[in-house]
């Protein structure tokens, strides 16, 4: 009953949820993220539909997701090393600069009519590579700013932007496709890239960052990341569940446009609404986490992943469009729980000079989405999109059960052998 009063009291929710926003650095980081995550969500919707229209192939649509995520698998540990070796907010500036330049070139290719699926794969590979760097740097920076429950709230709000951007981005992208075709749609994406770049270039950060003692040696840093996973059960458990979620669960989004068009018989606007429903659910889930600041983080993390996979299967077999919208919303709530707890479990388990590598290990886990999307697309091509989602996501549910058994802390039944976070943080709010 007490928890229910906490959840339903609007003043209490506002105070708990947004007290972290009082920090000026976090406000700027959050504002940058609003543009960044929205243009990423818009880009995925636009380029997925672009490739589907050109190729009419489930596998080629899946390759958009593969191209986007492969860099996280390839460069995850390196990105973590960079976040511990270099100033984190300067890495964020480099990311937005590269994205803006590449985005302008993609607009030119689309307007000249020379863009092909290869151009789409290359573009989204670039933004995927920069995303792997930004993820490690951004989340490590949050660990420099906050600790404890404030860190939980900050990461939940940031994750809410990641997932909640799907509320705006896909619908915006599909509407732009309808109004101004693919070139105009990507011009809108490039505009948002420019806004994010301007905000990050004018950001002022006065936070002490602890650098790795092995900063001069990237190889040593990567080996240190691998050793961190071997010796720290909190990091290992988080990485393994992240990898399972991204291999078996999240790839279902690559089948969403195929099921929408070929089974539910919808157009691009309705497809955008499906992805927006996913984003709306994720935003609700993230806001609940930020306000409640749950103690049972392992359950929120693992059961959130399970909920998304179960809802994905239900979406695949929905006979009506409105029912499909509902299940996408439910999947979004699961995504909000999973994404909100993902960085917290790892960040609270390491010292300040290990945060980049811990986040790099998480990036590596996210990178398993690339082979997962290829598998989803291949199975969809062979036996159908509904069956593909059912079999792959079903295996994901089994994997979560096994991981909760192997790592009892993922079910909040034990502690994960945490090293203990560094208490010498800048805690100025």
Characterization of the model:
This protein has 16 helices and no strands. With 429 residues, it is an all-alpha fold. The protein has a single domain, classed as MFS general substrate transporter like domains (Growth Hormone, Chain: A), CATH 1.20.1250.20. α5 runs antiparallel to α6 and α7 packs across α13.
**Shape by Cα distribution:** globular
> What is the name of the CATH topology?
Growth Hormone, Chain: A
N-end to C-end Cα span: 31 Å
Q: Which regions contain 5 or more consecutive residues with pLDDT less than 50?
A: 418-429
- CATH level-two architecture: Up-down Bundle
CATH level 1 class label = Mainly Alpha
Percent helix range: over 70%
Number of domains: 1
Helix/strand/pairing class, anyone? mainly alpha
Biggest sheet character: none
* Percentage beta strand: under 5%
Order of helices and strands: HHHHHHHHHHHHHHHH
What is the strand tally?
0
Number of helices: 16
What is the arithmetic mean of pLDDT?
Answer: 81
Cα-atom radius of gyration: 20 Å
Q: CATH homologous superfamily? A: MFS general substrate transporter like domains
